[in-house]
């Protein structure tokens, strides 16, 4: 029978896999009522199933083959019901058995199971009407809250914002209402130099859920507002911090984004702190992603280097997960393009060993970045750095790259770096350095 | 043997303890017990009191903030206290007119367009008189006649021109405010208003403290703070170090309008540069390792007016400033620039192990009570959250 584990998405009332007979009778699902309509139209089953996207559907409605709710149930001579296209596919593969009972079929007739279809339709309609009503309730509630927000102050304002945030994060229709009724401007106007943390954190939590227009983003880009978001980022709980990071990222997507808004010590130090946080690993990825976006802005690069980002990142790379490592490497690569960055990389004693270890370790992208960083550092002071690199096992790794299925451009660069390194040694010695010191996992 | 040992220890005990509990003196014992109880209670209470330190260069607005807190969270000033400020305000008036007159004389000799600084003949006499009075230790009461004379001199065009160059003199910020209120100030029944008291300028010497509790909106008893105000001039700073232990937060006041002014105690030193160095020094103090730093960028009202007329880059620290527009936008831009400079300074002066200190910047105008109240609410919130965080509850 169905193998999937149901998820508790729709505020489940008991075990959703079982068709609760009592409530089914009460709600008219088991007949007795007319076909459910919504907005004066007969509801299309396929549309309802898609829109509702429920995890917990009674198992009697689920096709054993596709594990999806059946829209056109047909019954075999064994009495088992399947979705028509799926059982036809089964037959077309040459099987003439009933998939669940394994019996051989004596009759290949497919009888439409009208009763089940009717039941399915009614059940889904009922759920659909419920959902629509809740949505409308949410929309209405959102409207009310916005109206309240214009009037109240102090604690009442905080409560209104908290409720608005709950409504908006739970109901997509409410989000649209808020945007349509000028909620974005109203909520954004609460950000400023005198925004308390309580208000600021709710405002950010609301804004990240809404789709912001260009205009809205522009109005949020005032230095005083961005400052208050950074303050909330510094003081907040981990969820709030992540919300702030997301909001800033959303703002950065705008074309007219001014780099000086994010070239702020406070912001960069706060992000770095998030990346290094042992208590909250959930913050690593968003913070790194934002830091990387910021490092693509020329103006911010030397600032990022000056807060000591490079040694911190190098220290963290061995313990980050692969996605984060790629971001970190890409950042280091970008930072190596400015003189301070190159110098900081060279000054850090674990740059070379870490980069050498990362070659051919994670993804091709990572190898690409690691190689690029090694090239930058070795070009800065060829003699010293290439010696250290070769001692760390670079030569063997470069050979691996060259022999691998990586892109030609990458192989070319590896070859060039290999040549650069080999200049310091005689042939025999260099060849001995090319032996792998450890098995590559 | 054991018996002897016990007796020995017993008598040693009574020799060592500070309170001889001899059963023959119950009243004394009662008193001592009471005192001990009180000491214990107070030590416990002390632990919950958060120490706030108002620091900053001279004239940065520390005492004004101090007065505001008194007005907002304590009983304010009663009539006697208000009246107590009358001599201070009168002294400010005499002091101001003396500085302006002597300033005009100096500028009429050193400045290129010296003619505009020459006071008219009738007023010259008045000027000389007040120059002399202003130099005394005790000032005469400010009568209507004297106020009238001062007013006449104030309105002299030369004096007005001198006022425009006020940044080159040690003119107190309250100059304009008091000069425009002379009639009121010289009234026989004059009792200073709250605003007058906030404007009154007296150089703090030594340390002043108040204890207060900003009562929350739901009237729950909030944190108890003890605020210390100190003298900002260089010679006062050696007294600060005695206050540095056990401080929850330092409120550092920096008057951002003084980027074109020099120190009272040293006419060659730019005030903003002095503030910069002072801030740096304080940040590096070992006892402030875990202390929260709240930076009040003060005198924004004066900054707003000045920044459109006097470019920021007259101050060495701001020499890389580029104006971008005009009006309100330019003011905001200039303010953000100054804020960034302070931020940069903070992070440069903070070693990596201290980077987790709370550091927040507030824009303030210490004379505006509403603003100070709003600002202090934010300060209170930040400090409370910090306490919860340190207690592991956040």
Automatic annotation (TrEMBL), chain A:
<dbReference type="Pfam" id="PF25598">
    <property type="entry name" value="ARM_PUB"/>
</dbReference>
<dbReference type="Pfam" id="PF04564">
    <property type="entry name" value="U-box"/>
</dbReference>
<keyword id="KW-0833">Ubl conjugation pathway</keyword>
<comment type="function">
    <text>Functions as an E3 ubiquitin ligase.</text>
</comment>
<dbReference type="InterPro" id="IPR003613">
    <property type="entry name" value="Ubox_domain"/>
</dbReference>
<protein>
    <recommendedName>
        <fullName>U-box domain-containing protein</fullName>
        <ecNumber>2.3.2.27</ecNumber>
    </recommendedName>
</protein>
<dbReference type="InterPro" id="IPR045210">
    <property type="entry name" value="RING-Ubox_PUB"/>
</dbReference>
<dbReference type="InterPro" id="IPR011989">
    <property type="entry name" value="ARM-like"/>
</dbReference>
<dbReference type="InterPro" id="IPR016024">
    <property type="entry name" value="ARM-type_fold"/>
</dbReference>
<keyword id="KW-0808">Transferase</keyword>
<dbReference type="InterPro" id="IPR045185">
    <property type="entry name" value="PUB22/23/24-like"/>
</dbReference>
<dbReference type="InterPro" id="IPR013083">
    <property type="entry name" value="Znf_RING/FYVE/PHD"/>
</dbReference>
<dbReference type="GO" id="GO:0016567">
    <property type="term" value="P:protein ubiquitination"/>
</dbReference>
<dbReference type="InterPro" id="IPR058678">
    <property type="entry name" value="ARM_PUB"/>
</dbReference>
<comment type="pathway">
    <text>Protein modification; protein ubiquitination.</text>
</comment>
<dbReference type="GO" id="GO:0061630">
    <property type="term" value="F:ubiquitin protein ligase activity"/>
</dbReference>
<feature type="domain" description="U-box">
    <location>
        <begin position="56"/>
        <end position="130"/>
    </location>
</feature>
Automatic annotation (TrEMBL), chain B:
<dbReference type="InterPro" id="IPR027417">
    <property type="entry name" value="P-loop_NTPase"/>
</dbReference>
<keyword id="KW-0547">Nucleotide-binding</keyword>
<keyword id="KW-0378">Hydrolase</keyword>
<feature type="binding site">
    <location>
        <position position="366"/>
    </location>
    <ligand>
        <name>GTP</name>
    </ligand>
</feature>
<dbReference type="GO" id="GO:0005834">
    <property type="term" value="C:heterotrimeric G-protein complex"/>
</dbReference>
<feature type="binding site">
    <location>
        <begin position="229"/>
        <end position="233"/>
    </location>
    <ligand>
        <name>GTP</name>
    </ligand>
</feature>
<feature type="binding site">
    <location>
        <begin position="298"/>
        <end position="301"/>
    </location>
    <ligand>
        <name>GTP</name>
    </ligand>
</feature>
<keyword id="KW-0342">GTP-binding</keyword>
<dbReference type="GO" id="GO:0010476">
    <property type="term" value="P:gibberellin mediated signaling pathway"/>
</dbReference>
<keyword id="KW-0460">Magnesium</keyword>
<feature type="binding site">
    <location>
        <position position="204"/>
    </location>
    <ligand>
        <name>Mg(2+)</name>
    </ligand>
</feature>
<keyword id="KW-1003">Cell membrane</keyword>
<keyword id="KW-0479">Metal-binding</keyword>
<comment type="subunit">
    <text>G proteins are composed of 3 units; alpha, beta and gamma. The alpha chain contains the guanine nucleotide binding site.</text>
</comment>
<dbReference type="GO" id="GO:0007188">
    <property type="term" value="P:adenylate cyclase-modulating G protein-coupled receptor signaling pathway"/>
</dbReference>
<dbReference type="Pfam" id="PF00503">
    <property type="entry name" value="G-alpha"/>
</dbReference>
<dbReference type="GO" id="GO:0001664">
    <property type="term" value="F:G protein-coupled receptor binding"/>
</dbReference>
<dbReference type="GO" id="GO:0046872">
    <property type="term" value="F:metal ion binding"/>
</dbReference>
<dbReference type="GO" id="GO:0016787">
    <property type="term" value="F:hydrolase activity"/>
</dbReference>
<dbReference type="InterPro" id="IPR001019">
    <property type="entry name" value="Gprotein_alpha_su"/>
</dbReference>
<feature type="binding site">
    <location>
        <position position="63"/>
    </location>
    <ligand>
        <name>Mg(2+)</name>
    </ligand>
</feature>
<protein>
    <recommendedName>
        <fullName>Guanine nucleotide-binding protein alpha subunit</fullName>
    </recommendedName>
</protein>
